[in-house]
Amino acid sequence: MFAILKERGIDFELRIVGGDWEKILPELQTLAQSLGIQKKVFFLGEISDKKLIEEYGRARFFVSASRYEAFGISTVEAMAAGCVPIVSDIPSFRDFIANTNAGFLVDFTQHSQTADIIEKTLKTDCRPLMKNARLRARDFSWEARIASWKSLYQRVLRK
User: Fold this and answer.
1) Where are the domains of the chain?
2) Is pLDDT of 148 > 90?
3) Contacts for 76 with CB less than 8 Å, ≥ 6 apart
4) Is 17 helix (H, G, I), strand (E, B) or coil?
C-alpha cells in the first residue's frame, strides 16, 4: 500500500512501533528498500510509554494488519489519542469500528483499495473521524467497563 502511495506522489511517513518478536526486522527493511520506500519507513522497535504517547499524538492514523487479536489494546490506545484506525477486518477490530464512523476495516491483501483509504485519510479533514475514534475508545475505559459489569451483576442478582 505504501509503495502505491509513493507511486502516486503521496507524501507519508510510516513509523513501525513494537518489538521484533518474530525476528523479521531484516526482512522488513529489505522489503522497504526493494519497494523504494526505505526513506519513508522508520522502525522504532520497543519504546517507552511516554514515547508511545508521543507517537500516537503525532500520527493521523493507526494501521494494524493483524490477522488475529484477542482484544487489540493498541488500537484502542491509538483511538483514544485520536488516531483514525485503519485495521484488518477481524472480529476484535469489528467490535471497535463497525457502525461507528470512527475508522476503517480493510482487507490488506487489497493493496490498491487500502492505499485509497490511506490516501483519503492523508488528504482530507479527518477531525470528525478522529473525534469519533476518541468517543468510541471511551467505551473501553475502565470506568465504562466497570459500570457495564456492575449493571450486569445487578440484573443477574435481581433474577
Assistant:
1) 2-158
2) no
3) 96, 137, 140
4) strand
Question: What tens digit of pLDDT does each residue of 72-126 get?
Answer: 999 999 999 999 999 999 999 998 898 899 999 999 999 999 999 999 999 999 9
Roughly what angle, to the nearest 10 degrees, separates helices 73-80 and 49-58?
Answer: 60
Q: Which three cell numbers stand for residue 13?
A: 511517513
Residue tagged 476518541 (cell numbers) = 134
Stated pTM of the model: 0.87
HEC string for 30-52: HHHHHCCCCCCEEEEECCCHHHH
CATH superfamily of 2-158: Glycogen Phosphorylase B; (3.40.50.2000)
